[in-house]
Amino acid sequence: MLSRRAAFWLVAVTTSTLLAASSAPSPLYPVLQARFRFSSSTLTVVFAVYVLALLASLLTVGRLSDHVGRRPLLAAALLVDAAAMVVFLSADGVGALVVARVVQGVATGAAVGVVGAYLLDLQPADGSRLGSLVNSAAPTAGLGVGAAVTGLLVQYAPSPTHLVFAVFTGLFLVLAALVAVLPETVAPVPGAWSALRPRVSVPRAARRAFLGAVPTMVATWALGGLVLSVGGSLLGVVFGQTDHAVVGAVLGLFAAFGAVAAVLARDLGPAVTALSGSAALAAGTGMFAAALAAGSLPLFVVSAVVAGGGFGAAFLGALRSVTRLAQPHERAGLLSAVYVVSYLAFSVPAVVAGELIAELGLRATALWYAGLVGVLAVVSLLLASRAARRPATAARG
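^ MFS transporter, sequence as received from the core. Prediction below:
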């Protein structure tokens, strides 16, 4: 049996691997779109079904490990994710891609709930809040690594569409086997069936803060949905970038700098974190739109870094601003509400954009999308600025 320290880092690696696999298809989308000849609107549907399946699984199966134990549910989720990779390996059309993404979403949603709790269970008892930090940084770091590594494999490796998913199949099988050496941190308790019932609620004390955080949640995750669904297509169509390694690296930068920002902001207060993140998000979105209008790839890369950092800091600040107002027994329902808003913003606008691409074209749709996200980012900035001033005003009063 592994020590708690070693187990903590194994769970952290598992978290990053799960999210790396979820972003792996992003650099592959242009390749798969050309091979199976489907439209941009279909592409966004393939992206969105994963997010919706993840959300449904997270809201139902996510708390099940509190009743049956961490290890059984994590092992099962990893095996289901391996099965999703096998479906990707044998995909012969868009229907198989949809099935693979749904299965992957179910597995990832179940696993995210387990690994999040596991990290908190196993974190060092030194007051460092390492579990919370890794919970914030590991998923976005995994998204970045998955996109970047997949881009490299697509560009330089043989049979990349098969190799990527074969590698992840092997990784998930190994990680599922390693679950056996993890210490169990939860004793099975009754109530497993009731745990499958979704609980979405916002405590009265947190409602005002939650409503104030909604523009931030929507702006951050909507931009993330655009970048990870059609970002590869934008790089090809608008900037003429056909090097898949570059495509993967640019998409990876957006997610990776979200993780970097979360680490850098770990000791800041929620209001300051949200304020700085919203400012970076607004600036990055403006750069994103300017890069599309001018056809400037260097500016697009800079926008990915700035907007990615804004994503990480703004969402972390919004999350902290609401969770600190909830009692321990209220946090699960509140986090579910945050997940619902965030993942719907991650998926639904991307699907709408996919439908508009057929009418307006890819560049024009992305510009309109960026404009709306920019407006939300400015609203988020104004609300965060007001929240940051409120303690000082109260102190003077």
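The chain has a mean pLDDT of 88.
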